[in-house]
Design goal:
Strand content: 5-15%
Number of domains: 2
CATH architecture of the largest domain: 3-Layer(aba) Sandwich
CATH topology of the largest domain: Rossmann fold
Largest sheet: 6 strands, parallel
CATH superfamily of the largest domain: HAD superfamily/HAD-like
Distance between the termini: 39 Å
Radius of gyration: 18 Å
Helix content: 40-55%
Order of helices and strands: HEHHHHEHEHEHEHEH
Structural class: alpha/beta
Length: 241
C-alpha cells in the first residue's frame, strides 16, 4: 500500500463514473430494461438476461423492438426507459461505502472533482441530489454532452478540458470495461470498482488498482498524503446547469 500513497499525492483531480461506481444501481437498470421491454410486449427468457446488461437503450431498442426507428423515436423510447428506472430506483439510492468521505478528503487536499457518466441529466440529478454531494463537483459531464459514448474517450477528454488539467493529473474511478477503455484512451489512469466485475478482470484491463468500495485502506493514505493541489483561482465548471 506504500505505492498508493506515492501515487495519490501527485494527482490534481478525481473523476468518477456514476452507475455502478458511486452507487450500486446496475440491478435497477437491468430491471428497468426488462420492464421497458415487457411494456412493449417483449418477455425475455432467462438465458437472454445477461445479454442486456451493458446495452444502451438505443441498442436495446434496435435488438428487440425495431432496427428502423429514427433517432427522435429512439430518444423518446430512451426517455421512457429512464423514467421507469428512476421510478423504481429513487427510494433505494445509497452511495457506495465511503464515497462521501472520499469527496470530503479530496476537497480538503485541494483536488478538483468531476462526474463523467453516460447517464442523462435527470438520472445524474436524482443520484447526486439524493446523496447530497452535488456541491463537491467542479465539472459534471453527461451522455447528453458528447456525440460518442464510452469506450470512446470523448467524455473524458471533455472533462479534462473543463478542469483545465492534463491526463496525468487525474485519476478515474470506473466499474466497466467500456469505461476503463474510455479513460485509458484519454490517457488517464484508472482505479476499478469491483461492483460488476472481478479484480482479475480489472487487472487484465490494465487498471492501476482495484477496490470493492471507497472505504478501503487507500483512504487512510489519502488522509495523510501531501497531495499537490490545483491553483485556487480555478473556475467552477459544469457541462449543464
Amino acid at each position: 500500500m506504500i505505492g498508493v500513497n506515492t501515487y495519490l499525492k501527485t494527482k490534481k483531480a478525481f473523476i468518477f463514473d456514476m452507475d455502478g461506481t458511486i452507487v450500486d444501481n446496475i440491478s435497477f437498470h437491468n430491471r428497468a430494461r426488462l420492464l421497458f421491454l415487457e411494456k412493449h410486449g417483449i418477455n425475455l427468457p432467462p438465458e437472454e438476461l445477461n445479454r442486456i446488461h451493458d446495452l444502451s437503450t438505443k441498442d436495446l431498442v434496435r435488438k428487440y423492438i425495431s432496427m428502423h426507428l429514427s433517432s427522435q423515436e429512439i430518444k423518446v423510447l430512451d426517455g421512457e426507459k429512464q423514467l421507469i428506472y428512476r421510478n423504481i430506483y429513487k427510494s433505494h439510492i445509497q452511495e457506495v461505502k465511503g464515497f462521501s468521505r472520499l469527496l470530503r478528503e479530496a476537497k480538503n487536499k485541494g483536488l478538483q472533482i468531476a462526474l463523467s457518466t453516460m447517464g442523462c441529466c435527470e438520472n445524474i440529478d436524482l443520484v447526486i441530489n439524493t446523496l447530497g454531494v452535488k456541491h463537491y463537483f467542479d465539472a459534471i459531464v453527461s451522455g447528453d454532452d458528447v456525440k460518442k459514448g464510452k469506450p470512446h474517450p470523448d467524455i473524458y477528454n471533455l472533462t479534462l478540458s473543463l478542469l483545465n488539467i492534463n491526463p496525468d493529473d487525474a485519476i478515474v474511478f470506473e466499474d466497466t470495461y467500456k469505461g476503463v477503455v474510455s479513460a485509458q484512451q484519454a490517457g488517464i489512469q484508472v482505479i476499478g470498482l469491483c461492483s460488476s466485475h472481478s479484480k482479475e478482470k480489472f487487472k487484465n484491463w490494465g487498471v492501476t488498482m482495484c477496490i470493492n468500495n471507497f472505504e478501503e485502506s487507500f483512504l487512510d493514505f489519502l488522509t495523510s498524503a501531501k497531495i499537490k493541489s490545483t491553483p485556487k483561482d480555478v473556475e467552477h465548471h459544469s457541462a449543464f446547469a
